[in-house]
Structure formats: C-alpha cells, structure tokens
Amino acid sequence: MTGSTTLLALTLLWPVFPASMIFNALIEQLRFAPLRAIVTIAWPLAGVLLLPDGGLAETLAALPVTVTAAAMQAAALFTAFFYAWRSLTVNDLSRWARLIGTSALALLWLPWSAGAGHADLAAGAIALGSACAVLHLVALALARRFGSDYLGQGRVGPAHPLLAAMVAVSVLAALCAPPFPGFFSMIFILARVPWWAQAGAAMVWWLWSWSGARVWQRAFYGAPVARTQGRDLGAGTCAVAGVLASIVTLAAYAWSTAWIR
Amino acid sequence: MNSWALAGLTALVGLPLLASVLVPLLARGDRRRAGRLSVGAQWLNLLAAIAVLVIALRTPPATVLAFHTGTLVIALDHLSAVVATLVAAISLVVHVYSRRYMIEEPGYVRFFALLDAMTAVILWLVIAGDLLSLLAAWFLVAVLLYALLGHDTTRAASGRYAFWTWITYRFGDLPLLGAVLLLWHGYGTLNLAEIFSKVQQIPQPQFAGIDVPVLAALLVALAAFARSAQFPLHIWLPYTMDGPTPVSALMHAGIVNAGGFLFNRFAPIFPHAGMVLHLTMAVGLITALLGSALMLTQNDIKKSLGYSTMGQMGFMVMECGLGAFSLAVYHLIAHGLFKATLFLGSGSVIAQARHDDGVPANDIYTFVVERRSRRAARLPWLAAVAITVFVPVLVLTLSHETVAPDVLQRQGAVVLLFFGWVTGAQVFFSTHRLDTASPWRTMGLVVLSFLVVVMGYTVVGHAFDDFLLPDRVLAEAIYAAASIDAVTFDIIAVAVTAMIVATWLMNFTAQETRLQGRRGSGWNRAYRRIHGLVSREFYVPPVCTWCAERVLAASRRTNVWLRWL
C-alpha cells in the first residue's frame, strides 16, 4: 500500500472525524451484539497491523501533500473531544459505548506520532477497546430485560442488582478509571505526547467522566423500573466476568511495568 | 523492623479491601452479619494503624521505609503513620455509628462494602510511595465518594449532588495528573523518595523556561484546592449534605482534608516555589472569608455546616501558604474530630428535640418569671478593653517564646499569631457581652481556659512540627519560601489590623448606627443586594447549571444533525 492509502485506512481504523462516521455506521449496522464487541476490539488492531515500519512523521513525509504530525495529532484530539462531548447526551448504552470507543481509539494517534512501538500500540488498543466491547454485551442484557428504552425507565438496581453492578463497573472501566486497563493505557498515551496534547487528552478524560456519570444517573436513580422480563445475571456469569476482568487488569499492569521506568 | 512495617502497611490496605469484597459475599443479605464483619475488619485495621504508628515512632527521624512491588511503592514515614491512624480511627467510628444508623436504609450491605473500599483507598493514598499509586488512589477516592454520596438511589437529587462532587473532583484530578507527568519527565522516575532527593540538586530540570518544581508545586496546589473546596471550586461541598450522615462525617472529617495532606506529601518541592505558596495563602484567605460569610447567611443548617467546613479548609490551606505545613495536618486532625463529632451527634440532637421540644409549658409564667430581664452586670469597660486586647497578645507571645524563642522570626508564625490574637480577642469580647451574675469570675475562668488551650496548642503544635517534619532545614526552607519582603508584610499587617479594628467597632456599634440603613434609602438597597448576593451563594450554582445545560443542548443538536454517527 502507498503511504496515502495507508494513512486513509488508518483514519478509518483509528477513527478520525469525518472517517469516524463510517466506523460508527458500521457498528450501528451490526445487530448482533457479540459481533459489535469483536469489531470494537479487532478494528483498531487491524490498524496496528497496517502501520508502516517508520513512524507517523516518515509516513507523512512520503505524501504528495504537506501534512504535519502536529496536524494529525490535532485532528485526532479534535475527534476524541468531539465524540466525548457528543456522548454526553446519548440515552442508549450501546450507542454510548460506540461514541466513547471512537473518542478513545482516536487517541492512539498520539503515541504513534511520538514513536511508540507496534506491540505497545496493540496493547493500548485492546486496553481502550475492551471496556467498550463489554458495554455492548451489557447493553444487550439490558435490552433483553427492559426493552429498547432501557436507560429512561427508572433505576435498574432493585430488580436486577447484579446487572446494575455490571453496568456500573463496565462504565467505570470505559472511563479508564484505575485499576482497569484503560487507566494504564491513558497514562501510556499521556506520557509520550507534547504538553498541549496532554492537556487536550486530559480534558477528553474529564469529559468521559461527565458523560459516564450521566449514564449512571439515568440507570441508577429515580423510581424503580416498573416492567421487567427475565432474571438477573447469574452469579456464575458475574464470577467469570470478574475473573476475566482481573486477568486483563493484571496483564495491563504487567504491560505497564515494561514501559514505566 | 522492615518486615513488621511491610506487614503493617499491607494489612492497612488489605484488611478493608478484603472486607469490601467479603462482606457482600459472606453476609448474603443478612444486615447484622454485614455490619459485624465490616466493623470487625475496621477494629483490626485500627490495630494495624497503631502498630504502624509505633514502628514509625521507633524509626529514626526523617527515615522513610519503602517497599517496592514492580512499579508500585508503599512507604512509611511519620506523615503517613499519623494520617493513617487518624483515617483508621475515624473510619471505625463511622462504621460503628452506621451499623444502627443505616439499618433501615436500602442497600445496607452495599453501603458497608463501599465504606470499606473507601477506607482501603484512602489508606493506599496515604502510604503511596510513587506517583502512579498516588494518582490512582486520588482518582478512586472520587469514584467511591460518588457512590457513597449517591447511596440513596430513590432520590434523583442524591445522584445530582453526588455528580457535582464527582465532576469537581475529576476536574481537580487534571492538575495532579499534570504534576505527575511533569515530575516523571523532569526526574525520570515515579518514585517519590527519588524525586525528592533529586529536587535538592542544582540546576533543576526546566519546562518552558520554568523550573519543574515550581510548575509541579503550582499543579499540586491546584489539585489540593479542588479537593479541599477552595474558592471557586467550592460549590459541591455544601450540597453533599444530601448524602447519608455517616458519609458526611467521613467526608468532612477526612476526605475534604486531602488537600492539606497533599501539600505535606509534596513538601520538598515547595521551598522552590515561593510564589505558589503566596498564591496558596491568598486562595486560602479568600476561601476562609467567603466560607465564613456564606455560613452566616444561610438559612439551611446543613448548608451552613458545609460552608463552615469550607471556611476551615480555607484556613488550613492558608496555613500551608504560610509555610506551616505540619500545623495544617494538626488542624485537619482537630477539625476532623470536631466535625465528625458534630455530624455523628446530630441524630442525638434530633432525638433529644423529639423528647423535649424546648417549648415552655406555660407562656405567661415563662414571660413573667423565666424571661424577666436580670440586672446585667458587666466589667468596667476599661478593664474589658484591656483584657480583650492585651491578654491574648501576652498569652500567645509568652507561650510561643517559651517553646520556641525564634518563632517571631518567621512571617508565617507572626500571621498565625495575629489570627490567634483576633480569635482570642473575639472570645473575650463575647464573654464581656454575656449576661452573667459575676462577670469577674466568668472572665477569670475564660482567661484560664484560654491560657490552658493556648499553652497546650503551642506545646503540642511544636512537638508535632518536629515529628512530622524532622528535617528542620526543609521546614525552615519552606518558611523562608513563604515569606515576603518586610515592607510589604508590614503594610499588609497594618492594613489588616485596621480592617479588623474597624469591623469590631462596626460590630460593637451595630445597633446604635443601624448598619443596614433606613428602609428605602440607597445604602439600605445596596446592603440588601450584598446580603442577597452572599445568601444566594454568589449565584455560582445556577450559573454553572445554566452553562452545563447550554453545553448539553449543543451536544444534543449536533447528535441529531449527524444522526448519532
């Protein structure tokens, strides 16, 4: 592939606005939630596979038009900020996961432009995407029990306490809170970029927190949901999820020890 | 010694963490069992904290026992030992209190699990020996506080005010994140002890032409301001009263004091950042004044208590700005115990009021007999003025001169003595205005109490200073950095004294001069407007809400326009 084709493909795989709309349209079209989850993780990893051997600067230098690395970083930051801001007013958990995922994956441009290795970028992509992937599955569980308008009906907790806990924890993971893998990924990104990109990415992180709290507000406060169907999540499902989350978190911590000196 | 310290520190975080996981699993919905398990774990935790304090007392001064696991470091020094003991003790009291107080609330088991997790995270923050652990624990305190403040999920307001705290705390996390990245880049390590040893080197690493310690100190101070409700990041604090009372106690007694702890933790970088200390002093002073003014104008007693905490936090931060870092810790301990007592005692006050509402049984009897005015006996005014003005000066100066003769060489100490004088004079002035049968006896007892309190405070305060900051060179360097040139200092001191004397005179003659002016006059209108502005909290909450609604409306429109893609 030529440099320009690679770069175009990358703007799609590590979504940069307006190419990010294609990524979002694709996820929206997938009706099968596990497939959405798989695509959320595989999509940015495909971007890592496409990465040329040189860094962003070398790739941009090969282009027929002049594009600076700073411009690409700014575009990525704008995308991250734009989607984080838009996620503030979303009433659907799956759609929220999609917007937050777009916002997070756009940030991968920052460490790449700072010369991060492919393996680190792949680990960062998995860390950022995995929580959003889980959220797609949680959204499916909610939709099965409460119908499509599951975030507007009242609090989930009384009828389905384990599912409510799963929503709380997976949203927290998507916000890159410690000790979830996203936290290490954000530190990895922030540690490698210039100060203005650090400030921008930190503001994006803050916007996620605002957005996540609005999801909690809709899911956990007010009158209990009047109409439900189906049972709460099984204790076994939660135990398996807990074990998997612990493994991924430990792996993320182990990864962090490699780049933290 | 080292293995005992490691075991103690591990237990300190591990016990409450284990309790937070095991309580929901073992209790299986049995509330009493959940409460017993959680309180039991907290007793053990307090024992671990005391053991850690004993180990710290037995280690040589200025020694830091650090333990590494991968990139994570936990460290034991005098500061962490003292604060950990305080946190464990307050947490135990809150746990014991919550067992009965929360028994009829839904989510009882969840509440205890969250309380245990919060204790674990705060203790992790206290013993964190590296920047990443500190940042992670700082972040998690906000997460758990959100969950605890919003515990009552039946009311949307509970979640709304928990959200205010969350978003302010997260905003305050950004400067700390910046400080972490700056120090990491500047010194090439996340280990706090290594960073502090490198801070002493010259030349310092620079960022944008400014020394890294100066910028890092500024960012640390900003993070502390948000967490300790400093103006203008204070608005969340009075509204947190919507949370359960035990959480209010934990927060006002412990979490909100984190700003003072942060200043002390990063103390070695502040001798390089005099301007930051001056800014801290100004922010603390403004917050103390505004917090006190807001407290006095609120009709809601809970909000009033919240603003009282804000004023106290302002004073604590001001102490840091004056270089009296260890005094700030002393202050946060005293304030923590005092506020926890107030909050946890509120239920008893309500119960007492239910038992006896205080309304007299017979109005006519009360009017004629009990409220009959007595002959007011007061001291001669000259004696009252002499006691009010000179006794506090004498007691404060002599007590400090006895304990530390060089105390008046430090500007920060002079300012604090000045505040002590104002407070003492206020006490004597109020005593003079009391209706009492034997004014000399009352005044004598108050003078004696003042003497005991000031002597105790001075002796304990200096001992505490030596204990927390055993490196006297560092302590003196912080005081020196907090100082300003003598002429400016004298001008400010004279101006502030004049202001206080004028305020006293105004207060003294308030009834005669009718401070609020004649109804309908221009001054009266201005007076009412100022009062309205303060009582409505300077309109900060509605302005913030309006701004947030505009941002959300724009986001909604954009989403519709782009079809959610």
Lay out the secondary structure.
The complex is a heterodimer of chains A (261) and B (565).
Chain A: H1 3-13, H2 20-29, H3 33-50, H4 56-61, H5 69-86, H6 93-106, H7 109-113, H8 118-146, H9 161-174, H10 181-190, H11 195-220, H12 235-259
Helix pairs in contact in A: 1-3, 2-6, 3-8, 5-6, 5-11, 6-8, 8-9, 8-10, 9-11, 10-12
Chain B: H1 2-27, H2 31-58, E1 65-69, E2 72-76, H3 78-101, H4 108-127, H5 131-149, H6 156-187, H7 192-199, E3 206-207, E4 210-211, H8 212-227, H9 236-239, H10 245-253, H11 258-265, H12 274-297, H13 301-321, H14 325-355, H15 363-370, H16 381-403, H17 411-432, H18 439-468, H19 472-482, H20 486-508, H21 510-513, H22 522-535, H23 540-561
Antiparallel strand pairs in B: 1-2, 3-4
Helix pairs in contact in B: 1-2, 1-4, 2-3, 2-4, 3-4, 3-10, 3-14, 4-5, 5-6, 6-8, 8-11, 8-12, 10-14, 11-13, 11-14, 12-13, 12-19, 13-14, 14-18, 16-17, 16-18, 17-18
Output the structural class of chain B.
Answer: mainly alpha
The whole-number mean of residue pLDDT values of chain B reads 87
Q: Please work out how many helical segments of chain B DSSP would assign.
A: 23
Number of strands of chain B: 4
- Give the strand order, joined by hyphens, for the main sheet of chain B: 1-2
Please work out how many helical segments of chain A DSSP would assign.
Answer: 12
Identify the most extensive interface between protein chains: A-B, 44 and 47 residues
Low-pLDDT segments of chain A: none
Domain count of chain B:
4
Name the beta content range of chain B.
Answer: under 5%
Mean pLDDT of chain A: 91
**How helical, in percent, are the residues of chain A?**
over 70%
Return Rg of chain A in Å: 19 Å
Unreliable segments of 5+ consecutive residues of chain B: none
Oligomer type: heterodimer
- Structural class estimated from helices and strands of chain A: mainly alpha
Classify the beta-strand content of chain A into a percent band: under 5%
What can be said about the biggest beta sheet of chain A? none
> In sequence order, what are the helices and strands of chain A, one letter per element?
HHHHHHHHHHHH
Task: Tally the beta strands of chain A.
Answer: 0
Roughly how many Å apart are the termini of chain A? 36 Å
